[in-house]
Amino acid sequence: MSTIIKKKQFPNYRKYTMDLAGRPLTLETGKIAELANAAVMVTYGETVVLVTATAAARPRDGIDFFPLSVDFEEKMYAVGRIPGSFMRREGRPGEKGILTSRVIDRPIRPLFPGDFRNDVAIMATVMSVDHDCSPEIAALIGTSAALAISDIPWNGPVGALKIGCVDGKLVVNPTKEQADISDLDVTVVSTGKKVVMIEAGANEIPNDVMFEAIQLAHNENQKQIALINQMVAEIGKEKFDYPHADFNQELFDKVVAATMDEAREAMDTDDKNVREARWNKLIDHWHELYLEEYPDMDKYLEEFTYKFQKKIVKAWLLEGHRVDGRQKNEIRPLAAEVGILPRVHGSGLFTRGQTQVLSVCTLDMLGAAQKLDTIWPEETKRYMHHYNFPGYSVGEAKPSRSPGRREIGHGALAERALLPVLPSEEEFPYAIRVVSEVVSSNGSTSQGSICGSTLALMDAGVPIKAPVAGISCGLIQDDDGSFTTFIDIQGVEDFHGEMDFKVGGTKKGITAIQMDLKNDGLTMEIIKNALDITYDARCEILDQIMLPCIAQPRPEVCKWAPKMVTMHIDPDNIRDVIGKGGSVIQKIVADTGAKIDIEDDGTIRIASADSASCDAAKAAIDAIVFVPEVGSLYYGRVVRLMQFGAFVELAPGKDGLVHISKLANHRVEKVEDVCKIGDMMWVKVTEIDEKGRVNLSHKDALREIEEKKARGEVVK
User: What architecture is the 633-710 domain classified under in CATH?
Assistant: First the structure.
């Protein structure tokens, strides 16, 4: 009996195509990953990303939040590489992968129903990379399409674009060549009406240019949204019904009516600990009033607290009243200090209310730069910014753990904000690491880390182009569409507000933006307002707090930082400096105590704790690569005497012959009559023959020296 085979058919396969910034964008569904709630294969240029959306059939028990997970998987085969790990497998996500996951998560999360408790998993697998077509954008579009056509409840779709600025002109989805020279890298995600996410890095871009870029992206995003809506109309599934989160509205209304005055009094303080203590007493009062009637009320306490506090905060803000009594354009009390830690290379302490960040700068050789093993073009990272958020910063008793996505995201934001003002490698040949330790947190720690890190860099003597400050902007909207923005949001305003619009920049312009939302998006009016008030705020922070603390970078690097010397040699001489098996360079390091990095182009960087070691190492290398020039004068030591002349050392291991006829202006019978071993004498290089032998003349050197002295020139 012969084997029976049937060809697989894909009756549900559909393909949708459009032009996106001059390159084809294709969305395919119905062929791959059929068991997911929805799957879309996105091809943009030659970048291919598979996006799947999967939801649990039932809600997760005992939670009061939406359990959404987003994973952006970087497959090394996508760029034709084998992973560099020992196991030669992809391991934990890289930093860029985690940041991209966050970029996908932030715009889609607010568009899910508020009482949805089913687990939802988004998986974006990068399968092929064309560096002219961003995998991040492809994944965002694929996520939007997959959720939109799935049966998962979601209020999309969204569109996503990057905008660059090349030679003063805005560019949609710039190519790699354009991105390399662009002054702007902003990712904008939009619904049909509003902007739901902004993520930006920029080289001090003015507000008006940034606003124009956001507007352009929002308008262009509508083309993607139209395509995805077409998919929904043709193949979209009906959204499934779900058990709505349990909430006792009757009890909540009673609690609000009975304890509103007490709740307002509890909230009316700028001290986080005082507020929490007052609220705990209020909960005890709720128990006294209603626990007997509602014995299961404890399961609603967290949500009651959130809704009650939000109700108060929203009402106050719409009235122009803030929890801590500030005006909407008033920043919490500020303080700045530098030189906090005596033996580190640079330190800065920045305090804003109860938020306090200590940033520490460390300098090292460029060889200490982070080596990257990712799908992205960058192979190394010279500037590293790390952010730590220990439990004690919020008064929690919990052990230290490895950095999570939040810590990595906040560190990356500060890194992005400061990178545009750092000096180039040629100007400042150091690897730079800044660690921001959040020692106290009551909102805006990421912006505090930008300010503190600017102080630390300046304290370390890093010649930054301009100081950078960071500030956050919050938002409350009324039911009639009116809104109120306010700067420098503290923890409770962040928790209950609708926006955390974080902007870092100099007086000249913006260097970074990150926007987190809890609503369905922002209008252009709100975005313009946020850009304006954050610009004024960061200028005041710089002028009144940071610059009076340290007006400019230290003129020299800290005495504890390695001293750096850069030199260049002919690449053909690199093997001579390294020596067989590294013997020569190892001896130089052992003798001088300096660290030495040699690059393929002949650039050599020498670092040591003291300049004398650097100078000694440089002198040793100079001696190895020394090549005398015909016609030049040298002051050397006699190292050998022969019947026919004297050998004079021009540099360690490099000598030349002064023939007996060239030792003096008169006839010389014996070499010993003119010089002995150890004597120093001036010589002139007269010839270097085809075998590299150097011929010298003492009498020609003396004649030239006399002529120079006659002209008043100094001979060194």
Answer: Beta Barrel (2.40)
At residue 234 the predicted structure's pLDDT band, cuts being 50, 70 and 90, is very high
Place of tokens 């001696």: 623
In Å, how far are 103, 145, 180, 422, 566 from 96, measured between CA atoms?
10, 23, 17, 21, 31
Given the candidates 3.40.710.10, 3.60.20.10, 3.30.1370.10, 3.40.50.300, the CATH classification of the domain at 563-625 is 3.30.1370.10
Tally of CA atoms within 13 A in the half-sphere of 311 that contains its CB:
16
Q: Output the pTM of the full model.
A: 0.85
For residue 135, is pLDDT > 90? yes
What residues pair up with 190 in beta bridges, in sequence order? 159, 195
Say whether pLDDT at 694 is over 80.
Answer: yes
Domain regions of the chain by residue span: 14-235, 249-318, 334-549, 563-625, 633-710
**pLDDT tens-digit readout, 431-459:** 999 999 999 999 899 999 999 999 999 99
Contact between 698 and 662 under an 8 Å Cβ cutoff? The reply is yes
CATH superfamily of 14-235: GHMP Kinase, N-terminal domain (3.30.230.70)
3-class SS string, 664-696: CCCCCCCHHHCCCCCCEEEEEEEEECCCCCEEE
Q: What are the tens digits of pLDDT across the range 274-312?
A: 888 999 999 999 999 999 889 999 888 888 998 898 888
Sort strands 195-205 and 184-190 into parallel, antiparallel or unpaired.
antiparallel
